[in-house]
Amino acid sequence: MVHRAPVEALATHAVANQPPDFAPRDLWGTDAALRDAVRREGAAWAGDRLAALGAEAGSERVMELGELANRHPPALKAFDRYGRRLDEVEFHPAYHALMELAFRHRIHALPWDRPQAGAHVAHAAMVHMLTQAEAGVLCPVAMTYASVPALRRQPDLAGEWLPRILSDRYDPRFIPAGEKTGVTVGMAMTEKQGGSDVRANTTRAEPCGTGGEHTLTGHKWFCSAPMSDAFLTLAQAGRGLTCFLVPRWRPDGTRNPFRIQRLKDKLGNRSNASAEIEYDGTWAVRVGEEGGGVATIIDMVHHTRLDCGAAAAGLMRAALSRALHHVEHRSAFGRPLIGQPLMRHVLADLALETEAATALVLRVARAFDEGETGAEARAFARLAVAVAKYWVTKRCPAVVYEALECHGGNGYVEDGGMPRLYREAPLNAIWEGSGNVICLDVLRTLRKEPAALAGLEAELRGAAGLDGRLDAWVRETRRMLADPAGLEVQARRLVERLALALQAGLLLRHGPPAVAEAFCASRLGGEWGHAFGTLPAAVDGDGILARAAGAA
Asked: What is the pLDDT along the chain (552 residues), one digit of tens a residue?
């Protein structure tokens, strides 16, 4: 924990001009943009729940848990001392404490066991905040949350597994799921030869009984959170690629062959184990129709993409908050950093990017809520989550880097916290479909789902006439959409334009005028350079920074 009253008067000098510790920090009470977006998108009823998580996630204890979970990453125990296979992963107690926190706050379960308007919005806001303490645990939490719609395609499995999944008890014991007080669910799709092209998977499934039971033989190149209690996976069955649920234990209570070959030595996200695994006669049960594996598991991917966007926006907020904290307590060249015009310009630019990301992700989360009962909203959600996932995750590393630079050399030092954020920043752009895959998904959705385009047009019309720059931007975007022959090579440009149009519309309709004007002038109006801190001179930087600091 943070030491109290350290020695500042040393033998050779006095320690001065250094900021105080960042934590404790109320992640809900200091984030006006998040609070406004939650209310606007229909989750005001969750205010007390979100306030409680924001206070706990920003506490000294939880921030320290995040550091410890990364400083002591998981370790593979493939065998016991006698040479018998274990295929287990050991985690530091800090990891388990963070998982317990996530389950106790019901981040994984809230939209499913208490369905109501705004439930997915509240879920996304919780992801946004907990990410700021530690992102690694959000991987198993996100997959557990996202497994529910896929499992519902197989009612008998859903009846067995959903009560365990929706428990608020985190149970780390490695025992059969039926003996536990709560479970987590992971995903294993990627293979060496296929990457994102899961139809190239070579894992084979052979029937072994009634009720969809099969045995699997093959490998998976990426399997995150391998100590989950079960995994949704893909394998080639008689009628083609099929989705299966693979428990870690067989129905007879013996260990299911789930061979962990090694753990990945990753750039970031180090508290979370990612593994290479092999199936060798591994017992599994079919989920959904045989041959319909992609259609089944895409329900899970669809929801994990929402969490990718929410987590990336949370990382941006974490980086901005740390930069603001540093410059408020640091002076250079005889003046506080926060009072220097160029520094304020940089921070205002970062605040714009962060608020726009938060606004877009929570608007998409509302589409998930509305899509539970409305076909057009469901189609719009499928399109918009890909657009948001692409753009917000792409912007995250740039925001984190610039916030790191605001700290000077201190930002490059491990115990300052920024290097961990910087290593984490690229992950969500890669997980659940890298940039090109996401952009091609957007084109496919636009081509195959007219309701998705109708939902997009309805959203854009909501901001028509509010700003001439947005109107011109939308006209040019529609011109691109009208030329499908040339869209694939321009797919990234199109998705970027869609994201910026949606963000600008949200800020114009609902954001403070200072934020909306600066965003449109810079992102749409061409009054912006190629780095943060190049906003037009006339923007209301004071108003933008006051909001970023937590003012309503």
From this structure: 556 788 999 999 999 999 999 999 999 999 999 999 999 999 999 999 999 999 999 999 999 999 999 999 999 999 999 999 999 999 999 999 999 999 999 999 999 987 899 999 999 999 999 999 999 999 999 999 999 999 999 999 999 999 999 999 999 999 999 999 999 999 999 999 988 888 899 999 999 988 899 999 999 999 989 999 999 999 999 999 999 999 999 999 999 999 999 999 999 999 999 999 999 999 999 999 999 999 999 999 999 999 999 999 999 999 999 999 999 999 999 999 999 999 999 999 999 999 999 999 999 999 999 999 999 999 999 999 999 999 999 999 999 999 999 999 999 999 999 999 999 999 999 999 999 999 999 999 999 999 999 999 999 999 999 999 999 999 999 999 998 888 999 999 999 999 999 999 999 999 999 999 999 999 999 999 999 999 999 999 999 999 999 866
> Look-up: residue for tokens 């909001």?
547
Nearest to 498 by CA among 475, 521, 474: 474
Closest listed residue to residue 188, CA positions, set 145, 140, 148: 140
Q: Which residues, 6 or more positions from 209, have their beta carbon under 8 angstroms from its beta carbon?
A: none
Model confidence, pTM:
0.97
DSSP 50-110: HHHHHHHHTSHHHHHHHHHHHHS--EEEEE-TTS-EEEEEE--HHHHHHHHHHHHTTTTTH
Sequence-distant (≥ 6) Cβ neighbours of residue 456 within 8 angstroms: 380, 383, 384, 498
DSSP H or E run through 206 = strand 204-207
Phi-psi sector, 79: left (phi>0), alpha (psi -120 to 50), beta = beta
